[in-house]
Amino acid sequence: MGTFKIEGGIRLKGDVTPQGAKNEALQILCAVLLTPEKVTISNIPDIIDVNKLITLLGNLGVKLQKNGPGSITFQADEVNVAYLETEAFKKEGGSLRGSIMIVGPLLTRFGKGYIPKPGGDKIGRRRLDTHFEGFINLGAKFRYEREDHFYGVENEGRLKGAYMLLDEASVTGTANIVMAAVLAEGITTIYNAACEPYLQQLCKMLNSMGANIKGVGSNMLIIEGVESLGGCDHRILPDMIEIGSWIGLAAMTRSEITIKNVSWDNLGVIPSVFRKLGITLERRGDDIYIPTHEGYEVKTDIDGSILTIADAPWPGFTPDLLSIILVVATQANGDVLIHQKMFESRLFFVDKLIDMGAKIMLCDPHRAVVMGHNFKSELKATVMSSPDIRAGISLLIAALSAKGTSTIQNIEQIDRGYERIDERLRALGANIVRV
Question: What percent of the chain has a predicted confidence (pLDDT) above 90?
């Protein structure tokens, strides 16, 4: 297990360019299975979770040609579907939650798709019902081997288009069903579909390959199935979660940072939520400029009540940034109620922040009240372990702002979602060492 040693209290300065979006990459990479033709994807982030999926695709028989940093050409013209029933696949597929999204493409193109119970962050229950109910609606037969936690769907011939109202606006569930429906016979209507920018990117990519998807960006997608799809070139958006992480880091460490090429139009409410915490950020072209903050004052609701920041499906505030908002609030001037609605274990890292001197009251698994120090009391360095990707980066931000030298263990969790984070922080002036 790797470790970061971080000397806190150093103000950073400079420019940083966000990596390609992890959550888009996991969808887009699975979509290469839909065609035997070449698909070239650029701006692929070099992170553990994405690299695991690329390796999995290679083991399935997908040909990979690296074109340069972040660019790979994929060709799925000789897919080995038999690999899905091997012990090696069960072990490999179970280590990555994003692997669930290979099922839709494999089912619609080859008539079968299997996956072991997928891994990922331990942030509470993450049900798969939406995925498989969608496949069943399209005519597939569901199979579950309880002892092995092995899921499967099978179908003879083409899937059949259908109307479905999803029980939750699951991003990965919507993506999986969309990929299955593009080659189905007839028309599929998906209501209560997720509409995140990364899901929109998937739909735009599929349309460029010859799919017929209407309603992109809304919560109702209408898909007219086609016989086959062709190749395409696709560029992944910058990662909005990493962009939010850099905003929070700049404020907490009182640093002057410019985040380059952020795709402002795809950030939704993220800038306005940070502004509610009193953080100044300026739009300069397609960049975000964050000046040095000597303090930031929380805005109350219009009736003077405590500010509440909660997650919600897009276009609401993404749950992946609530951990960052929570840690940034520890040095705000004012109080904030953080309400994590979607996952019941995502706030369970606050004990580590409390050990560092933060004033946080955990009300229940979903809610925490943060009473900001307004920089009158610095966080204290400590030894801690990263429980998941987003908590890990939040603890890293806390350590960079703290007094003294902190140690963060289990940093593989951070590496799953953040590309060369230590190198990029050192380029801004941080004192961080990977041990």
Answer: 81
